[in-house]
Structures are given as C-alpha cells and as structure tokens.
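Notes to self after the Tuesday call (sharing in case useful).
The group wants a holo model before anyone commits to mutagenesis around the pocket. I volunteered. Ligand is pyridoxal-5'-phosphate. Logging inputs and output together so the record is complete.
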Amino acid sequence: MENIDWKSLPFGYLKTDYNTRCTYRDGKWGKIEISDSEYVNVHIAATGLHYGQEAFEGLKAFMGKDGKVRLFRWQENAERLRNSANGILMQEVPNEIFYESIITVIKNNKRFIPPYGSGASLYLRPLLFGSGAKVGISPADEYTFLVFATPVGPYFKQGFKPVDMLLTREFDRAAPRGTGNIKVGGNYAAGLRGMRKAHANGFASVLFLDAKEKKYIDECGPANFFGIKNNTYITPKSDSILPSITNKSLIELAKDLGLNAERRPITDVELETFEEVGACGTAAVISPIRKIVDDETGKTYHYTKDDIPGPISTKLYHKLQAIQTGDEPDKFGWVEIVKID
Ligand SMILES: *Cc1c(COP(=O)(O)O)cnc(C)c1O
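Result:
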C-alpha cells in the first residue's frame, strides 16, 4: 500500500480490510466468516465481558526477500490458545480453524503486509472469548473466535536498543496456580498498574517478582526474562510465567550456538551476576536491558557498556529474525510459507 510509511509504523492498531469470525454454538464450531467490520455484536451478559473468559494470541507474518510470506511456529500459538481455553474453561479452537482463519486474514489483507527490509511485519491477533450469556457464574455455552491483522513496526521505537526495567514488589501480575501461565487478558489487566508505575518513572517496562515469596524473577512486563552468564542462557522457571514461543526458540538457538541453556528459578540476588539480560517475545523478539532498578532498595544493576547490547543477545536477535524472514535457512522447521495467491 503506497501511503503507509512502513519504516515509521508504530506497534499499534491500523485498520486493515478484513477479519474473520467463527462461533461455537449448539455444541459445534460454525463456518469461518469474513468481515469488513471492526466491530463485534456481543450479548450484554457475555462471559467474556463479565467473568474474564477471554484469551488471545499474537504472531507475525513476514515478507521475505524472495517475495514469500512466512509464518513463524503458528502450531505453537494454536496449542497455547488451547491451553488458555482449558485454563479458563472455554471451548478449544481446533487447529484447522485456527490455521484457516489466519491464512484467510493474511490473504485478504495482502496490501498490508509490510515489504521486506522495512523492519515491519503483519501482526495477527487471534482472540477467543465467551460470547454466550450467563449471569450465574459458569462457563458460557457459546464462544467466538476472531482473528484480525494489523501491520506493526518494532515494539520499542528505539528498535534493538537497550531499555531500562523497573523491578517492583508493589504489584503482582499473577499468582502461583492462577492464570499466569496462560495468555488471558486478565493477567494484562492485573499488570497494568505495575506497567504504569514503570512508565511514569521513565522505564520501558516492569519486572515482576513471584507473588508468593517475592524472591524470584517472574515476567518482564508482557515478555519473558532471560539472563546470560558463563556461556549459559538462563530463563526463569515458574508456574506463573507465560511460556513464550520466542523464548523457547531462543533456547534452541542458544544451544545451536554452543551455549548451555537452563530453565530454573532465578532470584533477584542473582541479577548481579549476569553479563547480559533481556526480555523476549513476539513483539520485540529481544529487548536488551541496559539496567534494572529495584524500587524498594534503590539497587541498580547495569548490563551494557556505552548502550550497546551484549554480543550474545545481538547474535540471538539477528539469528531469529533471519530465520523468520527467510534470510537464513530454517533448519528447525519453524517457518511455514503461506500461499497467498
Ligand atoms: C505473549 C506473551 C509473551 C511472549 O510470548 P511469545 O510467544 O514469545 O510472543 C510473554 N509473556 C506474556 C505475559 C505474554 O502474554
């Protein structure tokens, strides 16, 4: 599309041409419908509105140098959405409906796929919510699954530049055995005050500690946390962390680069010992962290010299992006080429 300035696209919503909807009603999923409306007509007593029966996904389609459109590990997103559905007793979306919806949305919004080399991509947002009416608390009988697309630029305006994180004990994002490990909107609502505090104090995001002991690193805003030291990639193990597909991929890439990889609890005390730290997720791939400030003790942990991201984070970042765009061969079988004609 001629009048989009691809290079300065924000990570935000831009209206595209079409989206899809599919409804589970009377015990079965219906047909995938294509819509040109940005709105859904929802029952005023829908459980998605009242009782938080809502989960979402986020994945990207990339235009390659070869003019082919690639999807990254969509099966993982489909599986995670099923886990989210199970976690809050919603109807699961079958793989075929998930995939068909995504492909339909990409095909019908071809002109919004950012060109190769722009740093932008087509972000896909699958959403599942209880659309059936209930006032007594119970799972809905009806569910709506919709997918929309929007072209996005890099999550952080500065691009692959180190950002600062605020470590706070004031707010929790998710409880052990709660819903932290599934991708539900409620976790985001719970995390907003922590995010606001971070932003208000000039930080890019918030680093949450585990809610029970307030001792272990949990999520890094809407992303997973990792640290690197002694040639080892280390990421927290916790029941309240969302299993990031980016993180899972970085672990594989780290091993492939000859690093060790560990998933284990990380205490705040250990923060001092890392050579590099970062946040990871689909939106930014990796956000290298310059410093972490503990808002209670005032302790500050510094990670970068002259604001330059660490060498291993940099290597991992470029490697993953090269696979996603098709610049490098995909020996892991992560990428699927989408036929869009
Ligand atoms: C989506 C999400 C992530 C990142 O997951 P990816 O699969 O890498 O995009 C991390 N943390 C939270 C809380 C999330 O919701």
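Two things stood out.
The longest helix spans residues 185-200.
The chain has two domains: 6-152, 163-325.
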